[in-house]
């Protein structure tokens, strides 16, 4: 085997997602397995260069994992001709300028979503990368997770017949920070810092719906801030200026309707933090991030509405678990592997900055829909 090194500038690895999912569970996990086998006698070896603003945090992460390269100087890192890929997991407000710099330096770009704070900027990045001839991708991790891979298997196998509707429930209670520490950073609840559940989650819902069920053609949303005051990492109270809950209805190409509730002010009464119920003429399924259960039309019971009598059947027990039938890897790592193969071998790759722009577009129209109390069509994007 011949080893081929790909050097990756990883910006934002001191944050929760950048560290856990991208550095540890993706890039370092690839190194632990001996690199990425390209299938042609070559192993691709990822070499991360950590980038961020907090020197002490970068040094501590590097020492913990036996890494030797880190920097607080993004300009210097991008000027290094040995760097092949720039990865961005910073706060959204800092992302656009950094990606522009990376493209100008001729680096391939892989980024967390949303790719920018607005549609014009997101499309601008996609055009910039296209014109520069660099490869580019946006993290769309949910479709690589076991539950949704099982759901796609059902769709591809014709299990549902005609798909009628999709209902999604996402969220959990994020503590306010006064008597228990919050599980999410305070910037998530400040609109001026790029926070808000719509800009965070609607890009996810766009690619999940687009990839599995069809393009979103219209959106109607109600967006609100249920918890108006929270406490930051230093115990100081602040006004929550960003939305913490969104209730959306999405019309899909082909006629199906999706309803998805997203909230950081809801307590969980389901098996996973996100679940999607898909109903079709021939069967239904409920999928989370890992599990998936089905009920075929031939096995569908016939409940009768009678509020005067107690329920005698367990509706949950009437569903069948979909078997794994495969080994599922970490969803973030799976997409990293596909992007790196795209970089190394020019293999086809569709989750690019244009796909990322669709997510930004849906978030922008969702906020506009809520503010104006009307439904908006979602135009198809192109460069």
What would you note in describing this structure?
With about 375 residues, this protein is α/β, with parallel strands linked by helices. It is built from 9 helices and 18 strands. The chain has a 9-stranded mixed β-sheet. Strands 1, 2, 3, 4, 5, 6 and 7 form a 7-stranded mixed β-sheet that branches. A two-stranded antiparallel sheet has the order 10-11. A hairpin with a 4-residue loop joins strand 2 and strand 3. Helix 4 packs parallel to helix 5 and helix 7 crosses helix 9. It is globular, with a radius of gyration of 22 Å. The mean pLDDT is about 95.
State the helical fraction: 25-40%
Instruction: Summarize model confidence as the mean pLDDT.
Output: 96
Strand order of the largest sheet: 17-16-15-14-8-13-12-9-18
Distance between the termini: 40 Å
Q: Which sheet architecture does the biggest sheet show?
A: 9 strands, mixed
User: Structural class from helices and strands?
Assistant: alpha/beta
Principal-axes shape call:
globular
**Low-confidence parts lasting 5 or more residues at pLDDT below 50?**
none
Q: Specify the number of helices.
A: 9
Helix and strand string, N-terminal first? EHEEHEHEHEHEHEHEEEEEEEEEHHE
Strand content: 15-25%
Task: Compile the SSE list and pairings.
Layout: E1 2-11, H1 16-32, E2 36-37, E3 42-51, H2 55-64, E4 70-71, H3 74-79, E5 85-88, H4 92-104, E6 108-111, H5 119-132, E7 136-138, H6 146-156, E8 163-171, H7 197-212, E9 216-224, E10 229-231, E11 237-239, E12 245-252, E13 257-263, E14 274-280, E15 283-287, E16 292-296, E17 320-321, H8 331-345, H9 353-372, E18 376-377
Parallel strand pairs: 1-3, 1-5, 3-4, 5-6, 6-7, 8-13
Antiparallel strand pairs: 2-3, 8-14, 9-12, 9-18, 10-11, 12-13, 14-15, 15-16, 16-17
Helix pairs in contact: 1-8, 4-5, 5-9, 7-9
């Amino acid at each position: 085997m011949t080893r081929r090194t790909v050097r990756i500038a990883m910006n934002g690895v001191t944050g929760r997602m950048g560290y856990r999912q991208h550095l540890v569970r993706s890039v370092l996990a690839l190194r632990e397995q001996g690199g990425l086998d390209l299938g042609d006698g070559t192993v691709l070896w990822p070499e991360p260069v950590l980038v961020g603003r907090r020197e002490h945090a970068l040094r501590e992460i590097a020492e913990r994992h036996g890494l030797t390269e880190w920097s607080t100087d993004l300009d210097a890192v991008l000027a290094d001709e040995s760097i092949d890929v720039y990865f961005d997991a910073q706060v959204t407000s800092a992302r656009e300028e950094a990606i522009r710099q990376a493209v100008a330096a001729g680096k391939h770009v892989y980024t967390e979503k949303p790719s920018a704070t607005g549609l014009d900027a997101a499309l601008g990045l996609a055009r910039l990368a296209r014109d520069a001839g660099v490869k580019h991708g946006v993290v769309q991790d949910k479709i690589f997770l076991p539950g949704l891979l099982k759901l796609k298997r059902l769709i591809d196998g014709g299990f549902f017949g005609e798909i009628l509707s999709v209902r999604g429930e996402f969220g959990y209670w994020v503590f306010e920070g006064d008597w228990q520490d919050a599980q999410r950073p305070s910037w998530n609840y400040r609109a001026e810092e790029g926070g808000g559940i719509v800009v965070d989650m609607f890009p996810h819902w766009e690619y999940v719906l687009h990839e599995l069920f069809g393009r979103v053609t219209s959106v109607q949303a109600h967006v609100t801030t249920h918890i108006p005051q929270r406490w930051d990492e230093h115990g100081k109270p602040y006004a929550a200026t960003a939305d913490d809950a969104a209730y959306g209805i999405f019309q899909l190409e082909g006629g199906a309707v999706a309803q998805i509730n997203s909230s950081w002010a809801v307590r969980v009464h389901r098996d996973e933090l996100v679940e999607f119920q898909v109903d079709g003429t021939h069967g239904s399924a409920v999928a989370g991030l890992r599990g998936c259960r089905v009920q075929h039309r031939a096995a569908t019971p016939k409940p009768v509405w009678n509020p005067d009598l107690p329920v005698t059947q367990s509706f949950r027990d009437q569903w069948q678990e979909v078997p794994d039938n495969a080994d599922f890897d970490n969803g973030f790592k799976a997409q990293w592997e596909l992007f790196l193969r795209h970089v190394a071998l020019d293999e086809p790759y569709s989750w690019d900055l244009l796909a990322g722009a669709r997510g930004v577009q849906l978030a922008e129209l969702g906020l506009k829909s809520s503010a104006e109390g009307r439904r908006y069509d979602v135009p198809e994007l192109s460069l």
